[in-house]
Amino acid sequence: MSLDQPPGQPPHQQHPVQASPTPVEPVWSGQVRPSRTGPIVLGIVGIVLAGLALLAVFLYLATLLGTGALLVGLLLALLPLAVVLLSVRWIDRWDPEPRPALIFALLWGAGISIVSALIVDLGVQITIAASAGALAGSDFASAVIQAPIVEEVAKGFGVLVLFWAVRRHFHGPLDGVVYAATIAAGFAFSENIQYFGLAMAEGNAQTLGITFLLRGVFSPFAHVTFTICTGLALGLAARRSATKSGAVAFFLLGLVPAIGLHALWNGATFLLAGDASVLFYYVVVQAPLFIVAILVVVFLRRQEARMTLRRLHEYSQAGWFTAAEVSMLGTDSGRRQALAWGARQPRPKQLAMRLFIADATRLAFVRDQLVRGQSSPALNAREARLLTRLMHHRADVLGQALPGPTPAA
């Protein structure tokens, strides 16, 4: 997009893309837009309930650890949490997910998932105690069988809930990774508070240092590596336009490697004796798995960028964007230059530039769904609305007014 000279106005009466499976005129059709009150209320209720679950976790930890150990564990747990969330933010930079959905994901992991695991563990302990010796507890079974199954189901179900709740923002595997990693970060945060707090309660600085080194430095992404398997599976469900019930099959499929990796990680502490053996396992097994996860994420992120560029180019062939605009909206370098230009402009133009980039990315994903045969009246209407909004964003960036009657947003 040339920021010095305004591009030619695109034809408002032309179909968005000539080859579109279901062409839609980007003008207001007079239809009433669906109310967003319901999803907003559900979002608020979900965040409140998840927040209450986190409060319950804090109360439990305060009772278990004491206030002093809880505060130390909390402060130390914030460090690996910040590292993971900054990584998630980088992954999510191309097509950012809604902030409320990410807050819910974090609270689900830190609150609801932990509460679920505690309830199941309490039930197991009660069952063992009521068996009058017929059943015996086992640390190995608890760590290698019970914990991986219960925890991955609890975390993964949070991703499934988000798949159902924010389906229009759940476009593919990378979105599944973002939501899964955020939930896993929340879970690890609460779990780390307990581990660090227990080490602090022992009054041994060396124990606390080793615990922080193992959990905060060596393996802050362990839970993320497990749970993104479920996120990737549900992302594939989104790509294939699976129904809510059909997504359950992908959810169960993703749980298999998630539980397997979690069990492998927990089992290493039992199968390998000595610090040297555990370190050997970390270098030979866990580190390569983490590297593979990084490579998968980088591949998916580049795939999204290429898809955006390709779909916006299709719109440019129909006259909606210039070649310069496609380069600006569909490449990292173009976006950086556009945002840098916007940062030097008045606030309205800066905001318009950000919205121009964000809505263009959403439009590319909508177009990709249409090309994949997922056409629906709602999707076609969204394409038309996005095109209309993009024309307004462009006019705001260039300080121009659109000619003729203004279409409704």
From TrEMBL:
<keyword id="KW-0645">Protease</keyword>
<keyword id="KW-0472">Membrane</keyword>
<feature type="transmembrane region" description="Helical">
    <location>
        <begin position="279"/>
        <end position="300"/>
    </location>
</feature>
<feature type="transmembrane region" description="Helical">
    <location>
        <begin position="177"/>
        <end position="197"/>
    </location>
</feature>
<feature type="transmembrane region" description="Helical">
    <location>
        <begin position="217"/>
        <end position="238"/>
    </location>
</feature>
<feature type="region of interest" description="Disordered">
    <location>
        <begin position="1"/>
        <end position="30"/>
    </location>
</feature>
<keyword id="KW-0812">Transmembrane</keyword>
<feature type="transmembrane region" description="Helical">
    <location>
        <begin position="68"/>
        <end position="88"/>
    </location>
</feature>
<keyword id="KW-1133">Transmembrane helix</keyword>
<keyword id="KW-0482">Metalloprotease</keyword>
<feature type="transmembrane region" description="Helical">
    <location>
        <begin position="40"/>
        <end position="62"/>
    </location>
</feature>
<protein>
    <submittedName>
        <fullName>PrsW family intramembrane metalloprotease</fullName>
    </submittedName>
</protein>
<dbReference type="GO" id="GO:0006508">
    <property type="term" value="P:proteolysis"/>
</dbReference>
<dbReference type="Pfam" id="PF13367">
    <property type="entry name" value="PrsW-protease"/>
</dbReference>
<dbReference type="GO" id="GO:0008237">
    <property type="term" value="F:metallopeptidase activity"/>
</dbReference>
<keyword id="KW-0378">Hydrolase</keyword>
<feature type="transmembrane region" description="Helical">
    <location>
        <begin position="100"/>
        <end position="120"/>
    </location>
</feature>
<feature type="transmembrane region" description="Helical">
    <location>
        <begin position="250"/>
        <end position="273"/>
    </location>
</feature>
<dbReference type="InterPro" id="IPR026898">
    <property type="entry name" value="PrsW"/>
</dbReference>
